[in-house]
Design brief:
Oligomer: single chain
Largest sheet: none
Distance between the termini: 29 Å
Radius of gyration: 21 Å
Order of helices and strands: HHHHHHHHHHHHH
Shape: globular
């Protein structure tokens, strides 16, 4: 059977639908309790879900910066097209296992309707790298945010906490070094060769390199050129991706306000509450990404919210509520993404 782009699109769509069904039946609470949580959220669900319109817009803008630096002048792709692929790509990332990589092949296939396939592949790989790179910056700077709040007496800084913070900072520094090597020299060809060292995959790696050597080297060349020749696009994308995580913290902020947690309710109290929200998102995403091979990080994200919220001295019940509402938000946006996948598109 010949795997056309439409058949691959249908495969991704079916996979997404299956994972939504799986997720609906793998909540750690009954449907009655789930409905109680949703009712408790009430009208706050609107800003919690709506803020992701902004977040995905920022993500799309970050990716668009990269696309503009990798495509040729005669290739055209609109921001709305990139925005649509951003939402559908993340919907598949949420729904698929293996570290949430389902959206990247889909994005390459769809974007290749607008620009050359090697340019599409390069931009998708570069954006995926930037997305992860920004994660490490988010975690790294959150360590200093925690220490700063601890120094003013807002949060505890015990010896075990200090050790954990030092380990996180050290891992981030190591990641910065590895990313710098990848951005300078490219990493696609080296990654395929490394995969060939895994037992049973040497033959596949050799055949894949033989068939696609020129294309892969071209992708590596474009990866290296982003940092060397398009520094403005590189740093714009990095700042936007980092900022998207700061905005993402708003959904946790809304839920804290829902529970009456506002540190006094004045401007200073609201700022402190938002900073706490940033830390909750930072440490939850760190925990979830450490075990990212599970579909939608089932159970991992929930545990991450409970642990990170408890670390700030808040109740475990709040952590469970936040995790459940975030899971509901994910399902809604996955459904939106799947609908966008099936909406007809005619490249111009």
């Amino acid at each position: 059977m010949k795997w056309t782009k439409q058949r691959i699109n249908n495969l991704f769509f079916i996979l997404g639908v299956v994972m939504v069904v799986v997720m609906m039946f793998t909540f750690d609470v009954s449907f009655v309790e789930l409905w109680d949580h949703i009712c408790h959220a009430g009208y706050w669900l609107l800003p919690i879900i709506g803020v992701w319109i902004v977040i995905y817009g920022i993500n799309a803008w970050a990716w668009w910066c990269i696309i503009r630096s990798t495509k040729t002048p005669d290739e055209h792709v609109s921001f709305l097209r990139v925005y649509r692929l951003t939402i559908t790509g993340y919907a598949l990332n949420y729904a698929t296992p293996v570290g949430g990589l389902g959206g990247e092949p889909y994005r390459i296939i769809e974007l290749s309707k607008n620009i050359q396939q090697d340019h599409a592949a390069a931009s998708v790989i570069l954006y995926a790298m930037m997305h992860i790179f920004a994660h490490f910056w988010f975690w790294f700077l959150s360590v200093f945010l925690y220490v700063a709040l601890a120094l003013v007496g807002d949060l505890p800084l015990t010896a075990p906490v200090a050790i954990v913070m030092a380990v996180i900072a050290g891992l981030c520094l190591l990641a910065f070094y590895l990313f710098s090597m990848g951005y300078r020299k490219g990493l696609v060809v080296k990654t395929i060769r490394w995969i060939g060292k895994i037992p049973g995959l040497k033959g596949w790696s050799t055949r894949f390199l033989d068939r696609h050597t020129d294309t892969l080297k071209n992708v590596d060349k474009q990866i290296a050129s982003l940092h060397k020749e398009h520094k403005r696009a590189f740093y714009e994308s990095l700042v936007l991706e980092y900022f998207s995580r700061v905005v993402q913290s708003a959904e946790v902020f809304f839920m804290l306000l829902l529970f009456g947690i506002d540190n006094g309710g004045d401007v200073t109290g609201l700022v402190i509450t938002y900073l706490h929200s940033i830390l909750i998102v930072a440490f939850t995403t760190l925990f979830a990404n450490l075990i990212g091979f599970l579909p939608m990080q089932l159970g991992v994200q929930e545990g991450g919210f409970v642990l990170s919220i408890a670390a700030l001295g808040l109740s475990a019940a709040l952590g469970i509520f936040v995790s459940i509402i975030c899971r509901v938000r994910e399902i809604i946006w996955i459904i939106i993404g799947l609908i966008l996948m099936k909406m007809p598109y005619k490249p111009k």
